[in-house]
Amino acid sequence: MKTLSIYIGIIGMLLLAVLPARAASEAEFRKLSKTYTLRADGSQEMRVQKELTLFTHAAMNGLYGETFIVYNPDFQKLEIHVSYTRQKDGTVVQTPANAFVEVLPAAAANAPAYNQLKEMVVVHTGLELGATIVLDYSIVSKAGYLPELDVCCPVKELSPIKEFTFRLNVPAGKSVHYELLNASAQPSIAQRDGMKSFTWTLKEVKPRPYAYPSTRGNMGQVQAVASGMMPVFVASTWSRYDEALKSLKAQFQPGNRSVIEAKVAELTRGIQGNPQAVRNAIARYMTELYQLGRCGVSLQDVGYRLRPASEVIRSAYGTQAELVNLDVTLQQAAGLEAEVAVCTLRPSKAENQGLSTIVSLVAQSKLMPEKVALTGTEEASLQPFLAVSGLDGKPLTMEVYLGAKEMQQTDTLKVDEKKLQQPAEGWGIVTLNDPTPARTLYAYAANTTIPENILLPKTMNCTLETIVCLPEGMKATSRTNKEISNACGKVVFSYQPTKEGMKVTRSLRVSRQLQTPSNYKELYALLAEWRDTNNHTLVVKKVAE
């Protein structure tokens, strides 16, 4: 029996030794290529080519079972050059016609103005462990739909990439600005048949961690780039960044003035002489969801176009850019000072920026009401890591309301003895709610260490005071106050007995946005203490009469 155990142990060690390192990944991109071409006639082509080998059922059945391609058929043509699966034994399974399914993009749902957008869902067939998905497609844009070649291309994927190729093709006489952020690699340059080509090739690109919110969605991509974790190519053929903004500024139109004036009159009725009250009224209209719907279609998806403000009022929904335009238009029509602030990724040189580097648009107002969300997304709170300007290209400094704001809240909790959790006769447990602002940070501290930088969406300074009123004849047991303080911030729990029960003060301050592998332990210590449910729990007992 002992000999058998030894053999099993040896076999296990051998298996560990020979298993490829790739087993830790769901899949691997053998090749991933993205090519952006500006043709002499002004039309453009984006071509994507990938070879992706699957290692797990999760990759096969969920993560990579489909490819989603959004385009605008009014101005763009989707061309599928190659689509098949090469199985482990070399058998090639061509993607059948019924596996190309065209649907309305989810972002355009409930937004009739953007229902012309299409999303091609390529359902990959013939999948098995060890199979390789091969897909090669292009989106060709008509001349004039996109004013210039304008690219912002993140590099990392959820799985490692053996070879990543990024290529720019422009007419030989056309100047192009470009930069690779968060990585160092120089392009090879070639010229042929009147076209100039710039090609970068990156080898053995590590995956972006899926576990961290900093890699999910648009907000996640921004955080990943700003933290230095995500390499990204930016390139454009605009002569200057302010020229790019000039073309965008032309889209910010009020539209029908009578519609705008009627809405302002409706919102400001009886408060015309009070600028702060006017601003509050406009902010409520902009932020209350039942009044205006939010459409998730991006500026890029619609060729950097937006509907006028009056049309957003009429339709009662808008894209993020359209809502910003409406907010600023209403404020200006009401006699307030307001402008559009453009938040972009920050390259080393301003001329390397294009419209594709825009992260968020924000309605910058001289009067900002308390406890009212901005029309712009929370990405604006990454301001220290972004370049911010007006639509004229002039640098702006965001108002302080975009940074971490101290949140103080006092409430009263009246404990009902009948609903009290009672683990034993004469004893009870009271659990205080964990505030939402703190919970938003939990996903950023899911592990004890991080392999790469994480950028929090914002810093935090949150204090909650809860007056716990216990049923007659019950008393809270004594608690010891706690305080943890380090370079990242501070956590405080204070318990003060009162005549009615207990006053509990909980405070969380996180003052550092950028978390690196070396200093992350400080953030983890703060949030680990805050997440300890014992700190949010009171033990109560009946007192002898």
UniProtKB/TrEMBL annotation:
Highest taxon of the lineage: Bacteria
Residue ranges of domain DUF3857 in the record: 40-208
Domain DUF3858: start-end pairs: 444-539
InterPro entries per record: DUF3857 (IPR024618), DUF3858 (IPR024544)
Protein name in UniProt: DUF3857 domain-containing protein
